[in-house]
Structure prediction request, 502 residues.
Amino acid sequence: MKRALLPISVVIMLSVYIYSCSSDDDDSGASSVVQTQEPETPAPTQYTLTVSAGEGGSVSTEGGKYDEGTEITVTATPSEGYKFIGWEGNNSLNQTISFTLNSNSTIEALFEFICLSEEPRDYLLPSYHTFKISHPLDLNQVAQYPTHYLHKYGTEKIMLDYNGDGFLDLVSYENDYNNNDNRQLISFFLGDCEGNMILDDVNSNKFYGLIHGRKILLGDYNNDTYPDIFLIGHGWDYPPFSGEYPVLLQNSASGEFTEKRLTEFSNFFHGGSSGDFDNDGDLDVLLTTASMYEYAFMVLENDGLGNFTEFKDLGLYKNQYGKVFINGEMFDINEDGILDFFFMSAEEGEESMSNGTQDVYYSSQVLIGNGINFEGQVYTIPLAGEWDQVYDADFYDLDGNGSIEIITNRIRNSQKGWYIQILEFIDGEYVDNTTKFMQENKSETGFWNVYLEISDYDKDGVIELRNNIPKQVEDHELLYSENPRFFYHEWELINGELIKVD
Prediction:
């Protein structure tokens, strides 16, 4: 039997009716039928930053992993003796850089050794101005016994830029104090940017030094613009104290030296200086003779080409003062444009009298130059008790009042300890005003100071006073180490007073 089929329109109407009734019966079922969820946030992209430092410095971070877009700041810091020159992997020339990290990156801070360059010196100035206290960084390069080297700086060894490349070189010889005529060959070392000393085969082992060197004068003695070296000594330091002659090593455009051995001027020369005392355009030489001459100093007049004759127009001064002058300097003390002389005495001695001998004292002297001869005004320097030998002197307006003070470097016969005396010119005479300018001015023990120098060594705007022998000359561990360390006696000039800082 066949079933009757409902029309399609009826079926549709029934379906709508049934759905409507079901919805009205249970509204809660609608929310469970359709549900939505928040999508997961993708992990941020990360990049690696690698930061390193080349030789001679450090960086503030070594880098790491960072999210994309992170702001990074990196600072490069040079070590002592180096300078920052830029970055590998970044175009900035700033020591501190900031950037946004959007990719893997590698950067390196670059540093460069600061060459130990030498400021040009005017070698037509008096030798006081051309002498600079300096030592090789590594004494083991040039000295078998560094302690011996240190004692002899300025007497047998000197540093200067003799080949004109901007780096300090070294000229050095040894003395044999056990032999009355045993001159040693002179060695020359060329310095490089890093302070290394390389034997100069062209000049080394060609010339002999002195029997007993006492001072080295630097200057252009033949007016060819190249620095020459004048060696002063007194010979074997035992009776009969026969003395010896100076030696002049003359430089040239090629850096090759020739020598003049001034045999006609042999004597017991303990010190001296060079300068144009007669204002004729060349460097003359003052030699202090320590009683072995008919007077206490000799003056060698230059003809402008490095040829010398004895200057004898000394006036009354030759007979009036000084039995023993152990050193002398030419310096324009009163700043009138004419060189003056400071004669440094060994002040205690004996003089034969009709009734025996008596102790006598010879003060150091300032002779004001007149540009012609030795007829100028003479000033006497106060004594300093047992510190009776003035070995060296420096000149500086310590208090800035327009008048130059004299700084004397004194020792005593025992050669133990050191004493610094400061002289101020007041009301027409030199007065000992050491305590005004300096409190720590002496030591009863330790090694004596050979030479002093007052200068702004480290270019920080502060004037320093130093000795030329580091304090720890007995400390072999420091001196023989891979990187020897030197500690000078040093004072800083602060508000007109020399304050000891080392």
The mean pLDDT is 87. The CA atoms of residues 48 and 65 lie 4 Å apart. The chain is about 10% helix and 35% strand. The radius of gyration is 40 Å.
